[in-house]
Amino acid sequence: MGSDGQDISAARHGRNSRLTRFAGGLRLCFRSAACWAALVMVFCVASSAFLIQNVLLDLEQHRSAIEDRVLWNIGQAEVELGALEAALADAQLYPRTGDLGRVRRAFDIFYSRIKIIEEGAAYKDLRESAEFDANLAAIRAFLDRNVAKIDGPDDQLQGALDSLHVDVNAIRSTVRQIVLHTVSLRTQFADSIRSTLVTTLIQLGALGALLIVVLVLSTLFVLRLSRSAELRAQRIGETKSRIEAILTRTSGAVITVSQDGIVTDFNRAAERMFGIAAADALDRHIADVAIDEDLKTAIRRVKQSAAGSDITLAANLSEQITQARRKDGRLFPVKASISVLKSEAGRMVLVWISDITERLQREQALKEALESALAGENTKARMLSLMSHEIRTPLNGLIGALQVLGETRLTDRQQKIIGTMQTSCDILMSHVNSVLDISRIDAKGIETTQEPFNVENVAREVYENQVHAAHLAGNTLVVENMIAGEPTYLGDARMIRQTLINLVSNAIKFTHGGVIHIRSTEGADGGFEIAVQDTGIGIAPENLARIFDDFVTIDGRYERSAGGTGLGLGLSRRLAEMMGGSLTVSSTLGKGSTFLLSLPGAARTSAPVAAPQGAEEATPPSRPLRILVAEDNLINLEILTELLVADGHHVTAARDGQEAVRLARREAFDMILMDISMPVMNGADATREIRGAPGPCSAVPIVAVTAYAQASEVEGFLAAGMTAALAKPISRARLRQLLAELTTDSAPAPGIAAIEEENLRDLIEALGIQRISKIASEIDTDLQALVSRMNNPNAAPAERNGLAQDAHKLAGAVAMLGAHRTRDTLVAIESSLKEGCAHDVAATLCRTLREDWRQTSEELDSVLAIAAALAADQNSAPDTIRKAT
Predict the structure, then answer these.
(1) Residues 6+ positions from 439 with CB-CB distance below 8 Å
(2) Which of 101, 241, 417, 859 has its CA 20 to 30 A from that of 615?
(3) Is 593 helix (H, G, I), strand (E, B) or coil?
(4) pLDDT in tens, 394-449
(5) CA nearest to 828, candidates 812, 804, 798, 801
(6) Cα–Cα nearest to 770, from 872, 864, 636, 676
(7) Closest by alpha carbon to 508, among 544, 567, 541, 463?
């Protein structure tokens, strides 16, 4: 027994020793990278072999099952066809109903088998064979031919058994071919699968070996990484040192506070910024550090905030801190950023503070520079407005004086001099308008319109405007329209016309004795193009890039005769771009230039187009008007009065806005022409006064006659209550056109009756009815004689002076009767005769005089008849006559 126990104990000890040695070997293997790699490799190889074997077995079993099922179904089709044939034979030998059911059942089974072969996914590769697919189609045709017979009545099927049997015999070979073809294809397919499988397994083995190698290399790499850990730790330490150096040398103050409120970082910038030594801040509680109290409060609130809300709170507090206080109490502007850092030691608060004193000073300097630039732009705008007024005002007097002078008798030389002066005024006004237009475009003060217009009509208008200047330079101006159909579009005809006038005018300057074409063609996207082509001196290639710059003039052979400010082409390109188009140029030096205006996308339209602007002189209104002219400039007042009186109008003058208001409240006028810049009260304020109080002129048209022509200023005039604006200088045609637009020929001046009844009643009381009737008859005779003599176009100057005196006498006579409307017309006739008015003006005044006197006579006869009737019936006193009247 003792011996057995010792043996058992020795065996147990030996087993424990082997386990101990095995465990030690395992520990050694785990410590040795090579042993570990060998164990891993053995394990991977064994696992790969085991998996490959299982994959082969599974694939082979799976593939065999599929192939067996396919071959069985194909073979079964031939068996079922044989069953169908046997059923047919029995039905033919024993024609009973039950046998027909057997035929149908056999046919349906064969039909279903063929359907499985046609649609089954396992047979897809077989159907891709042309021979197999053709045989399958033949079988399908057999089934489609006979399915109706099978599904038909028994007697029909019984009658078709013979033909059906023939079809079955015919299709048997086809079914046999499918079976044989399937066996052949499956044999080939199985061989290819085996070959592919072997290749796949070889690749899998290679991949497994590669993975093993990669695993070994990865193990070695991990060991190498472990050896380099110390190096990385060293580099991390160096990086930390560099970060500390950066924080030390950065211009922003960096303060780090631990979860306990202890200051762990306080860099040199913080020392300089707050005037506190790092030794007095580090390792101390933030409450004991002499920094800004607002900053301390922000740090404390962030530390005490809950996790998750601390980030948002820190961002909000950062925006609230805009200044800090130094140790000596001085405040300075700051930009603060408070962040929350999370580490193993807990949350920490990082505060980054930048002194932005210099930045704010730079921003202030930039702001002042911007304000200075804006002030410069405003000064420029005011200067343009002032210069416009200061230039247009004397131009108005000069142009008006030239027009008045041109209507007098002049010699040919005098007419030529006046024409030259008029041309010079037009050129000067063109320069002024170009500067103002560019200013308005740059300030977005001009808007485009979309109205129907005819391209050819616009080109013709430009032709009429520039043909005289072209002929003076010895040029031929040609208009060509190459647009098919009616060249009607939607767009801004005014801008297009101005652009073309600038281009043609420029072409005339640099072309002498040549040809200038204005050619219209269809453009892309339904738009159009207008080319202005000349045969002038051309433009050098180096100048093409700057030809559209403002104030740029290109020297050439005609530089002494081709003047200009260099604004026309720049203005034209701006106008083209405002209309959504473009303006380009191509040129050959010495041969000419072509400027192409392209306006893409302008829609063709069939809408009616306004008639083209003509060059005919506007005609004055058919009746004289009572017009109040408010103007402080004596020259402009005199010229404007001359233009109006020459057309037969009665003019009342006011030298300032206050006087204009007083006259407008006292008398009735057909229109008021109001200057803007006047002493005592300006034109806009005077208009507000007239519109704001009831009076005879509260609703009459008030026109701003001004040299302030910018769009924003005109809008202000209209807002003040003015009806329209007339920019200086003023031409007779524009003045006549405005009067015609704002007045009607049939309506008399508001508040002016044909007869002033109070005055007539006094005359009846003083002179009696008979005397008044006689005076009226004498006035009628004299008026008819005056009209007859005025209608003589060949009257001598002396006779015209006599007519003026007669008109003056008659004006006094009718005024005694209270016929103020007729009196005003006679006063206008007198003024016109003295000024030597044209015959058409005299004829207009005569028609007005006849109409005024006709209405006056009718009212006079009515009043006299009523007075006579009352006197005869009641022998009433003048008071009674007054009441009846």
Answers:
(1) 380, 381, 384, 445, 710
(2) 417
(3) strand
(4) 766 677 677 667 767 778 777 777 766 766 676 566 666 666 665 656 555 566 67
(5) 804
(6) 864
(7) 463
